[in-house]
Amino acid sequence: MKIRLIKKNELKKVAKIYSKVYLKLNENWPIKNSEEFMNYWYKKQKDLFYVALINNEIVGAGVFGIKPLFDGNRIFDGEVFVHENFQKNGIGTEIVKIIFNKAKKEYHVNEVELFTFKNGHQLKWWKKLGLECSTDFVMISGKIN
User: Fold this and answer.
1) DSSP per residue, the chain
2) Per-residue pLDDT averaged across 22-42, rounded?
3) Predicted TM-score of the model (pTM)
4) What is the topology classification, in CATH, of domain 2-128?
5) Domain boundaries defined on the chain
């Protein structure tokens, strides 16, 4: 397995993987929307946007954003996803480690704030990586009238 920074011409391939992964999680991401989302991340934080390759084929990706706050920079929000045929092999974990280490080194990040589903396998996975649920915050959402 090789993990490296994404190239702009790989965004469509990554978007297709993203759509397939999230369809299995009951989120219908049309390819067009996934492509827009990947382009958004590429423009926002391409230096923290990595792909994982096996036999020169992209099998997963991860990207995180840096947010400057009053007490320093934090990793705030992001995406990690691996094609279903390659999940549970440590690929996502390796992507996260590489990105977090780079963020720590280049942005002096010491904290992470992410959102995930509270009843899904994702929360268990993040906890396995050493993150905890915060009791200090609550997510607020709603329609704009």
Assistant:
1) -EEEE--GGGHHHHHHHHHHHHHTTT----HHHHHHHHHHHHHHHGGGEEEEEETTEEEEEEEEEEEEETTEEEEEEEEEEE-GGGTTSSHHHHHHHHHHHHHHHHH----EE----TTSHHHHHHHHTT----SS---------
2) 93
3) 0.90
4) Aminopeptidase (3.40.630)
5) 2-128
